[in-house]
Amino acid sequence: MNKQVKVALLFLGSILIFFLAYFFLKGTLLNQNDYTYYAKFQNVEGLKASDKIFVNGVQVGFIKSIGFISKANPHDVLLTCIIDKLIKIPTNSQLQVTSITLMGNKGIDLKLGNQTNFYQNRDTLKGLEEVGMLDKLTASLDPLTQNAQLLLDPNNPKNLQQTIAQLHVLLSSMTQLTQTLNQVAVANQNSINKSMKNIEILTSSLAANTKNLNELLSNTNDITKQLKNGDLEKTLTKLNTNLDDFNKIVKDVNQGKGNMGKLLKDEKLYDNLNGTINSANLLLDDMKANPNRYIHFSVFGGKK
After folding, report:
1. Across the chain, where does the E strand assignment appear?
2. 119 with 127: CB under 8 angstroms?
3. What residue segments make up the domains of the chain, in order of their start?
């Protein structure tokens, strides 16, 4: 095989590989088992054959061809689409032109419906034109515009004008309060200065007596430790014993036992003792009144 034949075969092989790659990229070699669907559009500006078809961002097919339904009446454009046959397309689904890159490359977004009936092979789907940037911006601004209108509506109790008025009243009240506080501060400046001076003196005194305070706290801590470590239980036991003895004495007295109990409980003894004391008092009174009756003195020291 001479050199010219080898070059010719290499050239033909390159052309064959090129066409195979071209048709592979278009997908035409892989659509033998896929379904063909059609879609009608008014305007498909930017679309071209081999553009991709997506469902939720995943490619499920491509555009096979684009052309007029009738060249004599070129109003409706017909797209021939190749879509994976495993994708079940409800009868209320739609194909919409969309931008897939920032550079403006187009594609088709398959918006699946919720019907239980499905399109069959070679059925025609409804096509939707691309929503322009201005339309998207308007749709995004619509909620903001409605909210702004509600805020500015005088019949709305939450309108912005009332809010601003209430805010103005609040700011006025705060201004008056600030002025009042300033007036009070000026009128009581001397008292405030004296209070601050007293606080300063107190602080200085505390600082000067920090050592004494520390010693006091230390002594308190020592006393607490001594109480904690002392024989407190023994002292309490002794105290309880003394209280028991005292209670026993009180019980005996209440029951008339012992001299104190008899004195408090025996009424006859009380009456006799009371009578004796009264007789003694009468005797003392008589002795004071008539001392000569009981005591006799002689001038010469003898008794009569």
Report:
1. 35-41, 52-55, 58-68, 77-83, 94-99, 106-111, 124-128
2. no
3. 31-131, 175-230
